Amino acid sequence: MKRYMPFFIFFTILSAVSIIAYAPICENLKEEEIIKPLKKLPFKWEFGDSVLEFATRFRVEAFYGKGIQQFSQDPLDQILIPAKHTIDFSMGYGLGRPSRGYEVVKLKTTIRTRGTWGAPESIASSGNASLKLSDAVFGVHTHPINRYILWMRELWMDISLEGIFNQPNIFNHKFTMGFFPFELGRGISLGSAYATDPDILGYTPMVGIDQFAPGFKFSGNLVLPNYLSYDVYAAILRNRSDTFTNVNLATQGQEFDSVGESRVCYPARGFGKIDYLVAGRIIWRPISDHNKRFHLEPYFLYDRQSEQRIEFIGDADSKLGTIGFALNSEYNGFIFDFECARNLGRQRVKGWDRNIVTIENRSGIITIVNSEVTAVATEGNDIAGKKAISIPSNQTIINAAPRGEQYNGQQIGETNLQNSNQRFTNPYSNSYSGFMFVSDLAYRFAPNWRFAVEVGYASGDVNPNRDIEGLGDSNKDGDYRGFISLQEVYQGSLVKSAFLLNDSAKVPRISNFASLNLSDPTANLITRFNNIIYVGPSIEIKGVFFDMPWTVMPNVISYWQEFPLKVFDRINGVSIGRNARQWLGLEGNFFGDIMLAQDFKLFFVGALYFPGSYYDDIKGKPITKDQKSALDRIERTGYPGEYVLFSSNHVAFFMNLGLEYRF
């Protein structure tokens, strides 16, 4: 623990300085003088029964971080962003409030632009397009859009059912449709991050959400206003039945069923491939006083993904259910919040033929070959032991070959062709049984001083769709225990994280390594609320300095893995017979902001991360296959060696400084 003593000293000094600075400044403050949440009323224009509102948020920030991806001292493991902007333009229209006291119809739209200064390509990119040479599909193409463009972040219409039918607005039943945020509980089981751009800056996850999911919502009160209310929500996450091309796209030619019958002759995707989500909740608020509250929120969701991707788009489908509840309570300064949830459902993995027609460099000549079929003997253009050439005679044999895992590594009949050891995967299913809970306990000593402790748990498991030590050892037809969150960007509630739980660019955690004997020995990563245990205290202090309200929030968080990681000797490619230790390390954060003027905020985030014994055990492991592919994308020398970044166990840190103005 000696190497972590500076960490505890850092937090102690930081807290002491905050308290000392707070005491003389805030000693005689009245409650009404204490900082209030940032809330700027928009510009309003009223004409008749119509109200038009307009608001803008402008945010500029800078960022520097070192060791934040691999915890290494490599000079390449650091990032510097001198400036980055986010601008939101919001406009709302309401009909009916001046005469009825509520909106009969309300519309809102938010237009956004953001990007890194000096890097216009950071703002957006085109979609992925397959690259094809003759019969070989050998990759995807995408390119950046080198302009700071505008896009629609939010667009929705809210209709009061009582207002439409000219009834008293007691229960406030509403129908909402469009692109709008919706979350269950704290936003872990279901969040609003439908289209999230990976971002390290800042500590407000909602800032990083560039678009909300298109959906529909019924909401209202069941008994009395704000006593017992409900929400029923549905979202369309992906529609692949919207065009003739999408319905007939040849994506399923590699699928085969339980008896080995292939779809190579009818590879069309098919009609009805729509991914959707249905969720609901009831919120009971029997107590909602100033310093006394009790809110209970039971909820459920059902997510249907007709086309999941394990290795190829559409090689699996999923039916995920989640049930849970959230509790929020406070009594005379004591705060207790709690949420828990459990996954239900299953994933169905299709029988799949991994063989595809691709290209390889064969003695300086681009050659079209089969990825999972080799030649037994040298014959014509085929070379013994090499991947079989893609020619009509070979493809006829390969496409007509019997399918099933029992044929892996076997010669195809009496021909000169042989299947690889992993060409076929039989259909199988995995059931979902993940679990999570999060709880906060806090005491508010005064309106401007709060101490809190947060503890969180999310179950983990090994990837059931991937072989780890040898071919065929994946957990087929098994029970996946890892918790599955949807559209989640949770970073803590009363104790916020800037590293492991920050936005969609939280530091990746490795879930498992694969043996070097396999074709893909790289690691799987976790970036969501999965396979983690954490606990940490936080202090929040508010005050006023020369009429400028300020807030500081230092904290410390300790992390563990819930499910242990098997460690491999990557030199020899074998298991060393033990699990990696589960302590992930200690994180220290300092969040602070000050209102320089009305609605003009200066904010700062500073963080240190001290890797734990887990990173000692996996030190020297290489990065993932996707990361390496991204780094190699424009390499042109043809150098056969590999440049690889390795994980390490050095202290990482970052600083984030910015200004935000709302008007």
Structure commentary:
The chain is mainly beta. It folds into two domains: 62-83 and 182-353 and 428-662, Porin; 357-421, no CATH class. It is 9% helix and 47% strand. The chain is built from seven helices and 36 strands. The strands form seven sheets. The protein has an 18-stranded antiparallel β-barrel. Strands 19, 20, 21 and 22 form a four-stranded antiparallel sheet that branches. Strands 13-18-23 form a three-stranded antiparallel sheet, with no helix packed on it. β19 (357-362) and β20 form a beta hairpin. The longest helix is centred in the N-terminal third of the chain and has 22 residues, at 5-26. The chain starts with a helix and ends with a strand. Residues 19-32, 198-202, 630-634 and 639-644 have low confidence and may be disordered.
Task: Considering the chains and any ligands shown, give keywords for the structure.
663 residues; 4-stranded antiparallel β-sheet; 7 helices; globular
Describe how the helices and strands are arranged.
Elements: H1 5-26, E1 43-47, E2 50-66, E3 78-95, H2 97-100, E4 105-116, E5 129-133, E6 136-141, E7 151-160, H3 161-164, E8 174-179, E9 195-196, E10 209-211, E11 214-221, E12 228-239, H4 244-248, E13 255-256, E14 274-288, E15 292-309, E16 313-331, E17 334-349, E18 351-353, E19 357-362, E20 365-375, E21 387-389, H5 392-400, E22 417-419, E23 424-425, E24 428-432, E25 435-446, E26 449-458, E27 479-480, E28 509-512, E29 524-526, E30 532-545, E31 548-560, E32 566-569, E33 574-579, E34 583-597, E35 600-611, H6 613-617, H7 625-632, E36 652-662
Parallel strand pairs: 24-27
Antiparallel strand pairs: 1-2, 2-3, 2-36, 3-4, 4-7, 5-6, 7-8, 8-11, 9-10, 11-12, 12-14, 13-18, 14-15, 15-16, 16-17, 17-24, 17-25, 18-23, 19-20, 20-21, 20-22, 25-26, 26-30, 28-29, 30-31, 31-34, 32-33, 34-35, 35-36
